[in-house]
Write a structure and sequence with these properties.
The chain is 74% helix and 1% strand. Its main location: membrane.
Length: 361
Amino acid sequence: MKILSRWALWVPILAFVTLVLTWGRDLPPPGVIIVAQLLAGAVLAAVHHAEVVAHRVGEPFGSLILAVAVTIIEVALIVTLMIGGGDKAQSLARDTVFAAVMITCNGILGISLLVGAVRRRIAVFNPEGTGSAFATVAAIAVLGLVLPTFTTSRPGPQFSPAQLGFAAVVSLALYLLFVMVQTRRHRYYFLPITTEGEVIDSEEHVAPPANRTALASLGLLLVALIAVVGLAKGVSPTIESVVAGNGLPQALVGVVIALLVLLPETIAAVRAAARDRIQTSLNLALGSAMASIGLTIPAIAVAMIWLEGPLLLGLGGTQLVLLALTFVVGTLTIVPGRANILQGGLHLGMLAVYLFLAASP
């Protein structure tokens, strides 16, 4: 089987062309259906190219590339929606980032553990690497999403300009420090471990792709991700209409968009878990959560130089409880370095609670 197959070559290009042709236009129902189909195809293509690149560069670099690429484009989408969103966009960054944290730390992590435990009875991973990643996610999440609820310099759940700038610098610094630890000083902590405890430093029995193929996949990965986020924005008016028509909270739009944007990482994580590469799955989940906060807060801080209106970052009471529960249960899941179907089910259950309360607060 060719590593760079024909469908994976043409689907991202076709999706990107469709994005260019439909950008900024109101789509009729048939157009929305076509865009949705191309969106699904672009997601699958993104996963394919991410796996090719990951196979070439090895772990944990492959997981890092996909997480950072998705997050950078996600940040661009948030800023774009905030520019023309009016009052509804004041809490868009908070809702999207919180949704990303809950989806990654409960959804992707939970389904990865469940798939691994069902296939091998026990899902094995490195608690040192996973624990350090989870601790960094918790620290950045509290800094960016919890503290604004309790600061007093500005009314409402928001930072003052000085506080926002400080939080942005600290968040970015913590993220860069983690990347250095993950890729250089303690790379061994983030390599996949089989159920038997064997560390996997490279894929077995399959020769890595050539540099030319890997570079082509890297370029097509970026094209596919741009198409995913752009087409998701294209169908967002339809999603908003459905949400408003059914009397659902506006925050649910951010949840749906986050689910669409995180599809490539979810599929890639499940595939890795099915191959007994649980550590790769957790690298994807926690790396995405960390990048989502660590890159979004600095980007939004810069964007607020020209954006008008308040930026609501602090979480409400229900969200704070769910975030705290996620961190407590996640810590108990990670510390042993081994998980069964119970831990996977617990995290998926918390994701279900979050989605239900997002629709029915």
